[in-house]
Specification:
The complex is a heterodimer of chains A (88) and B (609). Helices cover 20% and strands 32% of the residues of chain A. Chain A has 88 residues and is α+β, with helices and mostly antiparallel strands. A five-stranded mixed β-sheet of chain A has the order 2-1-5-3-4. In chain B, the strands form three sheets. In chain B, strands 2-1-6-3-4-5 form a six-stranded mixed β-sheet, sandwiched between helices. The chains are: A alpha+beta (88), B alpha+beta (609).
């Protein structure tokens, strides 16, 4: 099965939670954001989308992709997992 | 009819004649303008004309608490200042924490107006409304912390609130802040207005009770808010606002080397983990706040050993990345210097960043910089330049005049002077969040993310607004600004407001428990009314659409590197958002408040237009 590689970056409390700032993860070709959600839940018990988390794909909210969580992953995609921020 | 929250009186102090007056405020005014920022705008409109200059004796300082200030709620510490800004030459509104707002209300006042000018350096000691004019000559030249501690000792009162200015304000440096109990009216240079009136400090002490309509209900609201804050503001408690350094940099929006680019390669050397792991001394809380987002940083080793400051996102971002500095010790030392000498950390840092760019471009030399190699990334140069500004030495004398002062002398430096209406930006680059550009452009006081409306979460989280989209941003910015304007008028901190349901869809329980009147559904409309009142002031002072334009760097230069490489917000794109915004506000396409908007808000009923 062909694999694709994505990067997941963790920010603020998600660094505490995962012990990492970033990692690369392989998914099978055809995987989508739902698979990333499942992987995050299974691996770190991080619930995304969730009330206290922002999930960004290549610098844009997941919610903004017209395909929603069914948006298929592409090699080199970068996912950011960060808390809700509210101004300095 | 109110039966709590409001006191209905203001204290007017004429510094020239030493006349003290107590004046009443009609209930209708509170209904329409709420308090705090709303009242500060009303009195400014009525009493400071467009021809008054910031340092004229005719300029006034308005300080207003809100109906919730001082009540039994989380972080009920906020109050507002308005005056004519030395930095921008226009209307300035500013909010601060500290205890002065609470003390004002304990003395039986919702606000205080300072007018005229003392004939010599003076501090005011106001004990339960009784005003004493005292000789401040012993405090002239003293740092803010020395003045606060010195006055408390002299007056024998540890509980008093002390507002003071630092030495930079005494030299009329136009980017000087006002320190209140180690918190700040940070932006716009209000510190220099106090200095122009020969006021070094104001000590306030109130011993009365602040009435509330339903004190038991307020206690219940606080009790319910605490677990919400623990759950939703845990990152604030642990890391303070330094937590935003990583996200903003990672998103490619961190002002770097005078906004020349938007990603700082040394971001992980100045982020929350660096602060927490190497420099964290402890947390500091405002009165009644369970969140305690103030982060005290201390340098434990190296050449800046011993430096200590209450660091937060904006100061770190602008003293650090925007000056190219990745030495957190230098940032703490620079922060401490600003706090003590009286400089606004944000405008101060941005002026240093400007000097560094000018130096690297060869537009200024060591002759201008008192021999300092003024290069990006040099922590010693950062600190030296801040001192030059505060002391008005070398190029610092020009930088002390703020962005507009620099441009008046050197209009050819326009591409490098980053400002809106004379105020330099906060630690976000608008090329990474287009809504933030509209925020900076339409903020009532210049390039500010607070008064202008913090769009970033909506632009990241909402499915409706992409950060690089234009559609809907006008209405979004208006909504966030209106929201902020009412929150700034009630007297609580924006960090905790959600726990009391003061959001874009507010509920009236807290206001009703405080005042006996729930202000629903008017709260958002009041915010909008206040925003248009502030715009009427700006219009009267000559600001229209042209004054809302962004700096050339945001509109004409593509981001050269980092996650948003190639992005820029063109003038055409910006104008499209601006048109939408004006339409949403009921202002004409020149940014002037329409007569029907004034009428719809019934402004003539509560403001002498």
């Amino acid at each position: 099965m062909e694999k694709i590689e994505i990067t997941i970056k963790y920010l603020v409390n998600f660094i505490d939670k995962t012990g990492k700032k970033l990692e690369t993860v392989d998914f099978e070709k055809g995987a989508d954001l739902t698979d990333v959600s499942k992987w995050l839940l299974n691996t770190y018990k991080i619930q995304v989308p969730g009330e206290d988390v922002m999930c960004l794909l290549n610098g844009h909210s997941w919610n903004q992709y017209t395909e929603g969580e069914k948006r298929e992953l592409e090699n080199g995609d970068v996912i950011l997992i960060m808390p809700l921020i509210m101004g300095g | 009819m109110f039966n709590g929250g409001y006191l209905g009186k203001i204290l007017r102090i004429n510094l020239s004649t030493k006349e003290i007056k107590t004046e009443e405020i009609g209930e209708k005014i509170y209904h329409k303008l709420l308090g705090g920022r709303g009242l500060a705008a009303k009195y400014y409109y009525e009493e400071v004309g467009p021809d008054v200059k910031p340092f004229d004796a005719e300029n006034k300082i308005f300080l207003f608490a809100g109906p919730l200030t001082g009540l039994t709620l989380p972080a009920p510490t906020k109050y507002q200042l308005s005056t004519k800004s030395p930095e921008t030459g226009h209307y300035l509104c500013s909010n601060s924490s500290g205890k002065m707002g609470i003390m004002l209300k304990k003395m039986g006042y919702d606000g205080m107006i300072l007018e005229g000018k003392c004939d010599k350096w003076t501090y005011l000691h106001i004990l339960d409304g009784k005003v004493a004019f005292k000789d401040a000559s012993a405090y002239v030249g003293k740092m803010t912390n020395e003045t606060i501690e010195g006055l408390k000792e002299e007056l024998g009162s540890k509980k008093a609130s002390v507002l003071t200015i630092g030495p930079s304000a005494e030299k009329l440096v136009k980017i000087s802040y006002v320190c209140v109990d180690y918190r700040a009216f940070g932006r716009g240079g209000a510190g220099a207005v106090f200095a122009s009136k020969n006021i070094k400090a104001i000590v306030t002490e109130g011993t009365g009770d602040i009435p509330a309509s339903d004190p038991e209900k307020l206690k219940d609201i606080r009790k319910k808010a605490l677990p919400i804050l623990k759950e939703t503001r845990g990152n604030h408690t642990k890391y303070g606002t330094s937590q935003y350094i990583g996200p903003i940099n990672e998103l490619g929006c961190m002002p770097t080397r005078n906004f020349q680019t938007t990603y700082f390669e040394g971001g992980d050397k100045v982020d929350h983990l660096t602060l927490f792991n190497k420099y964290h001394k402890g947390n500091v809380a405002c009165t009644g706040c369970p969140v305690a987002c103030g982060t005290e940083a201390k340098v434990y080793e190296g050449k800046y050993k011993g430096a200590q400051a209450r660091t937060e996102f904006e100061s770190i971002g602008l003293l650090g990345p925007n000056c190219g500095v990745d030495d957190f010790g230098a940032i703490v030392a620079a922060n401490q210097l600003c706090d003590e000498i009286g400089l606004d950390t944000m405008s101060g840092a941005n002026q240093v960043a400007l000097a560094m760019e000018l130096y690297e471009r060869g537009l200024i030399t060591k002759e201008d910089t008192c021999g300092i190699e003024m290069k990006f990334g040099d922590g010693d140069a950062l600190i030296a330049c801040l001192k030059m500004i505060a002391n008005r030495e070398g190029i610092g004398d020009l930088l002390a005049e703020g962005s507009l002062g620099v441009l008046a002398e050197h209009p050819e430096w326009r591409p490098y002077v980053i400002h809106v209406k004379g105020m330099s930006p906060a630690a976000y680059d608008s090329r990474g969040f287009y809504g933030n550009g509209l925020t900076y452009g339409t903020s009532s006081r210049g390039a500010c993310h607070n008064v202008g409306g913090w769009t970033i979460r909506a632009e990241l989280q909402s499915g409706q607004y992409d950060r690089f989209a234009l559609e809907g941003k006008g209405a979004l910015v208006k909504e966030i600004q209106d929201n902020r304007a009412y929150v700034d008028s009630i007297g609580i901190c924006t960090v905790v407001r959600g726990s009391m349901e003061f959001s874009a869809n507010p509920k009236g329980d807290t206001m009703k428990a405080a005042t006996g009147y729930d202000f629903m559904p008017e709260l958002i409309e009041i915010g909008s009314r206040i925003y248009s009142l502030e715009r009427l002031i700006l219009n009267r002072e000559g600001l229209t659409r042209e004054g809302d334009m962004l700096p050339d760097r945001f509109l004409k230069e593509e981001v050269p590197s980092g996650p948003i490489k190639g992005r820029r917000l063109t003038e055409e794109m910006y104008n499209q958002m601006l048109d939408d915004y004006y339409d949403a506000r009921g202002w004409d396409r020149n940014g002037v408040v329409k007569p029907e908007t004034v009428e719809n808000f019934n402004l003539a009923e509560v403001v002498d237009l």
